[in-house]
Each structure stands twice: as structure tokens, then as C-alpha cells.
Amino acid sequence: MSDYIAIKNNETILLESIPVLRYEDFLSFNTSLLSNEANHCVHYFGYPLPDKLKLICCIANDEENTILISSSEIKVELNSLPSFSAQHLAFHIFEREIHENFGVAYTDHPWLKPVRYAFDRADRNSTIGQYPFYQINSEELHEVGVGPIHAGVIEPGHFRFICNGEQILHLEIQLGYQHRGIENLFVRKKKLLQRNILAESIAGDTVAGHTTAFVNLWESLCGYTADDDLQYARTLALELERIAIHTGDLSAICTDIAYQLGSSVFGRLRTPVINFFQVWCGNRMAKGLIRAGKNHFHFSGELADQLRKLFDDFEPDYQEMWNEIKELPSALARLEKTGVVTHEQAVSIGAVGMTAKTAGIKRDIRASHPHDLYRQFNHQPIVKHHGDVYSRTQIRNEEILQSIDYIREMIKNPPDVHINRPPLSPPKPDSFTLSLTEGWRGEICHCAITNGNGELLHYKIKDPSMHNWLALALAVRNNEISDFPICNKSFDLSYCGHDL
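== NADH-quinone oxidoreductase subunit C ==
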């Protein structure tokens, strides 16, 4: 029997078709795959069976456009397993969650600490007030704590720095302050609309990204093929969301280096982009726009004319402002060689999105595992090699311009309205489905498992922030603590996308 089954993005398979390996073989197979840089772990999770725990690991091959699925079944009471993470650090966050949720212990995990403090965690005595921060005993060093209540209008998270004077030696990031139970709600809620709205609420700045992952997954579970009108709306929304958030982040980066002109101009330019969502679907963040098997807001020729005019006005001001910032010595002095993540570090932690692409890793779902209209785009990921704040700023700039080009081409020929769409069939029973999208922040992964009645048995979500929070902790080492805000904003990771 094979060690795995290979699937494509948004493909549904029978649960029984996933090979079940002995744990030792399961570990050896999946960790060996990551010796090839073309492979990375898109998800690794467990779910309970009556007398054991089933583990499912999903490794994407970005060259062959496949996802390799394998599984193992373990007895939790054995309570002592060798870890994937000791072989490859990229698995650390997944195994920490498995440990926290189910009490699985590992003999050699390098950093076995709580992830979220979920309500139904295995050890209820493990509380956020007892988080085991790393410490260095020295009279020459001091600790600085930031959060969880922040001065800015952002979400709760605690950052614990160990510093030598102004120099950061170590940063530990503690999350887990929000307990929404999103994944459990996907199982408990039975109406499709409820689940669609849940998908929109995973991360407020990634509505199109997470909702597209959900609807593509659900349609695959139901054996439904989305027509060109549905695929058009989803692809357009994803690229508009990318433009809006990247532009807003350029404004925030300028704010953190005290460049008020850039902050004001980029902030102003973000506004008409999100306002276009309001015109299109009635919500500035695109809530209500993307629905499984439906499109309540057809993209018309009139909307195409409005969007074309928007970009005609947007591009000259945007380009002028970008040309100013890239030639301003005081700005470049703060951005260049600050907050570096090396290629080796990015590979070791399984980085995705901008974090991977600024470190020379060509990792972008739009190219490697395309869906919707990306199959027609021949998308070329933008890759940098310095891994610093300026590289992350450059990628935002170039992706904004690339997305505008994609949209200008798309709106030349909007699809016709589809009036008589077939209804969705019930989800397939005893099945497994995986959906990947490339949100503006990076790779999003949703997985679903159904029971014998076709009802959701388990639902798993991965925001790209799950991979990349550790990258921020690595990036600030040996930087001055005053550079932390600009490092943090250059990643712009999600708290709620982590605290599911």
C-alpha cells in the first residue's frame, strides 16, 4: 500500500482512501518530504475517534501541484511519542496544538508550549497567566513586556522581550486571548448561510481569502462546479482585497517610521478601493459577496467602468508616492537591513506568503495550486532575497501593481449573469476535502471531514499567521527595540486568525 494519496486543490476524496500508517512510518514519511524545498506542510491536525486519535498530515508539492495526504491512528494514553518537530521545525505549531487540544505528549519536541488556550483544551490547569516564558538569568539583561492591551486599535497579544540595553536578544509572542471557537462552530451550525458568515468572520481583513477557501471547499464536498460568474467574482474580490490591505499597510509602515506624507497618501488611496466593495456588495470589507453556489452581486459593465476609473485615478498618485519613498534616505535607513528573516530560517519554520517570498522562496498558491480564474493567469510570484522590512515593502508595491494589471484585464469582459444555477447537492458522506487560497497575507488552508450522513465531523482552518508569527520573533533578534513596531507592521500578522 502507498504511504499517501495525492490530491489536487479543492478535490474531495473518501476518508477511507487516505492510507493509515504506523506512527513511526507516518513520522518518517512526512518529515523526509520536507528535505525537498518544493514541499511544505499546509496542515497537520488530529481529531478524536471513539478510542483513539486520528492524525492527518497534508504536504503540498509546489512543483507537481499536488497535496500528499497521509494519516496515523494513536492511543493518547501512550503519552510518549517522538515528534515531527525534532526532525523539522516547520511542524512545531501543529504539534503544539495537538498537544494542547488532546494531551498528546512528545519525548523530544523542542518548544512544547501552549498555542491558544482553547476552552476544550486537554489540561484545564494550563492557563494564560502561567505561560512559561523563556528566561535568561543575568544582571546585564532586562525584560520588556508589551500588551496584551495595545495603544493602537489592534487585537490582544503579549510580546516579551529580553534585551541587552536597546538590543533585542529574544522575543516571545504569546497569543490565545480570544476564544471564539470558530472551528467548533462550523460543526455545530447546520445552515450553510451560518457557515458562510463564519468564514467571513475568521479574520476581518481577509474576508475574501477565507470565504473563498470555504465556498470552494463546500462546493467540492457537494460535487458542484462553479460557473465563470462565481469564479470571476471570487478572483476579483481576492485581488481587490490584496490591493486594499497592501496599500493600507504601506500607510502604516510610513506611520511607524514617522513619514507622515506617505502615511496620509497611502491611507487616502486605500479608501476608494474598499469603498468599491461597498458599491459592489454593500459592505466595505466584502462581507455578503461570496456565497457557495450563489452570486447575489453580479459584476456588471457599469461596475467595470467605475473600477477602471478608480484605477485611472489611483495609479498616478500611488506611483508618485512610491517613487518618493523609495528614494528618501531617511525612509530607506529605517527599512533596509531591518528585521531580516534569512532563507534558511524561512525554510525551517515553513514560512508562507510575503515572509517566504522575501526570503527567496517561490511559494504562492495562485501559481502552485491555482483555483478559480488563476488557472488562466499564468501567475508569476514576486520574489525578493534580502528578507528585510524593505523587501516586504517592495513586495507589497509590486503585488499592488500586478493585481491592478490582472483586474484591468478581467474587467474588459465581465461574464454574463447566470440566472438558473443548479442547487447544491448534500455534502458527500465519509469524505475529506482540502482547499487552499492565497490571501494577501499568504497561504490559507481549510480542511473538512464528513461523517456517514454527510454532516461535518471536523473542520480545520489555518491562517498564514500560524506559520509566520515565529518569523517575526526571529526577525527582531539583534535589532533595537525601537525597530519592533516597523518589523511588526511589515509582517502585519493576524491575532484573530491565530486565536480561532
